[in-house]
Amino acid sequence: MRAGINSLTAALLVGVAIGLVLTPDGRAWIKRPTLMLGSTAANASASAPSPAPLPPAAEAPRPSVPVVTPLSTRMQRGQLRIGVFGDSMADGLWTGLYREMHQTPGVTVTKFSEVSTGLSRYDYVDIQSKTERQIAEHPVDVAVILFGTNDAQGISIDGQVHAFGSDGWKIAYAKRVDDLVAMLRSRDVAVYWVGLPKMKRASFDARMALINEVVSARMKALDVPYIDTVALTSDADGDYDAYLTAQDTGRRQLMRANDGIHMSMAGYMRLTQPVFHTLTHDAGIAAPGRTAEAPAGAGGAGA
Q1: Do 128 and 7 share a structural domain?
Q2: Which runs of consecutive H residues, i.e. helices, occur in 187-284?
Q3: Rounded to whole angstroms, what are the CA distances from 125 to 85, 99, 189, 212?
Q4: Which pLDDT score is estimated for 50?
Q5: Could you tell me if residue 293 is inside a domain?
Q6: Domain that includes residue 34, residue range
Q7: 220 and 89 fall within a common domain
Q8: What is the pLDDT of residues 44-92, one digit of tens each?
């Protein structure tokens, strides 16, 4: 019996040996006897070296920001040319800045603003191209910008109209803001962007607030001074009021035009103050004495 079993075992071993020699898996096993027979996938994965870890993805480079000549350096050279750009709201701002600064030696304040313009309807007036032409003809050192009262409408890009407030609109409007700032900075022009004031009609105020939100975010990203005017043009509760307490007299004074959008002359002078103080601070201009009081009156209609 034992002899029969030994003979059978010997025969099996001989058969296995022949199988190992005659089959690809068998020959592979003879070379590497730790692998399981018949497991090509397992053998391949076990024999392949572990892949080297991929390097971390490089962060997208931030767009380069041209360095512009500081306002203080301009003043030390004896000249500071200020340009005011925007719609009719900027017309009033120009009036206020001119009144505050036109007697400062070496300082000029020029109006480049135009009624019924904005950043939404480049099919009507292309502000990017227009501004580029303006500063080519009349160079400036500083651009004070106030747009938005006409911009609560769709933007057309390559035949597609992006409805106001949509994601597409926000992207398109932000790009136009970025492009305008980039063009001015590339010509060594310092940019100061003035936010829109509080508005009377709630629905219109919400639209202007959306524009302020988009613009202020871009100014922060671009490291451009953004001058918020909402609190300045609101009452103590943060609401619209045509009459606000004057900062110099402490008396209530008419600050808004009848349309609930534009300002009275006193209102424009109020709007001017933070812009004026920011510019004089950055330019190193000594603070003047008490400025003349602005007369009350209706601001111009039509943005």
Answers
A1: no
A2: 202-222, 265-283
A3: 13, 29, 22, 21
A4: 39
A5: no
A6: 2-41
A7: yes
A8: 333 333 333 433 333 333 456 678 999 999 999 999 999 999 999 999 9
